[in-house]
Each structure stands twice: as structure tokens, then as C-alpha cells.
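On to our target:
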Amino acid sequence: MLELESANRTHTWLATALMHGIRTDTANLVNARQEDFVAAAFLSRFMNSNLLGEILGVKRSNRVMEGIEKALSTRRQVNHLTLAGIGYLRRKDRDIIPQVADFLLTEEDVHTVVVYGVVMTDETGESIVGSLRSSKLTLSPDEFLKDALGVDSEGNHYGGGRRNAGGFEIPLGFMSGSYDDEYDQLKWQLVEKKIQQMILGKLGAKDKAT
């Protein structure tokens, strides 16, 4: 257990950040386990409740709202799973993807969400970046993404995760870059087809196995 002091401002910030992390990872403690409650009880002695309230009350940016709007208009739903591509994103906007996934998971009759986009990684490189969120207790995001997306040439998995959440990043390699609108549209169509094929293919394999 961490050694914290309530009079230490740095410790207060740390405890508040850790409490926010627990709430985020457990859907506001809905999916919390015993160890999460124990940790939360400990941190509650040192955290700043007002600061945590301000963090939790942060409003969504215009870019996040645009991502949610696009996801709602393009999403595909299969057996309580939602797949949504939100297009091309700047590197600084990649955090929009998990925020959109968190939002879509609140929809009725949906237990798993995968949101993805093409993100600029540097001046010339691009990657398919995605987030998975799930409230299904029998689904392991880590196992699901590793099995669905496979590995690169060096044997490293493209995806992985933890309880209730996961993420992935797949470099586009020589397909990176923008030449004209037609190229961008064709590239996005290929990205959508490939990601949906891989995710739904894994879902189909699991369905057949059960």
C-alpha cells in the first residue's frame, strides 16, 4: 500500500488522480471488485473531493461531440456489439476515440463497443487506432483483441487490454499519407472493411464455438 500524507499537496493530487482512474476503469464503481473498493476507501482519506468533482464535471469538447455525432451516424450493430469508425484524426485528437467508445457503451442493449479512426503518428505516418469498451463480464478485451488482430512481423500484438477496456494500434505503412480526396476515401473504405472483418470474424468464431 502506498504511504501518503494528507498534508502533502503532491500526495493529495496523486490520490485524487488514482481515485479518478478507479472510477473510470470500473464505470463509476459499477464493475468494481473487492480490491477496487479497498483501494478507493484508502484513497478517500487523502484525495481532494472538490478537485475530483471538477475533473468529473469537465464538459466534452466540440471535437469529441463531433466524433460522437459521426459515430452515431455510421455505427454498425451486431449482436449487442457496436462498431463505429470516426474517420481521420490529428495526433493530438486521438483521445477522442476512447471518449466516444465510453459514450456509445451507454446505449441500451449494447454490451461491447469498438471505435476506431486513422490517426497521424508523425508528418508522414498513420495508424489505425481503436478503443474497445465492454460491460460483458465473460469478455476479456485483452484476449479478444489479441486474437482478432494478430501480431506484427516481430510478434508483437496490435491490441491488448484489461478488464472492461482495451485498445489497438495498427500502422498503415506504405498506405500512409494523403494525396487527394479520392485516395483518402478509398483508404478509409479499406480500413473500415478490414477492421470490421477482423472484429466480426472473431465474434463469429466465438459464437460458433459456443
Remarks:
- Helices lie at 9-25, 34-43, 49-56, 62-74, 96-104, 141-149, 181-209.
- The two ends are 41 Å apart (CA to CA).
- The first helix runs from residue 9 to 25.
- The first strand starts at residue 76 and ends at 78.
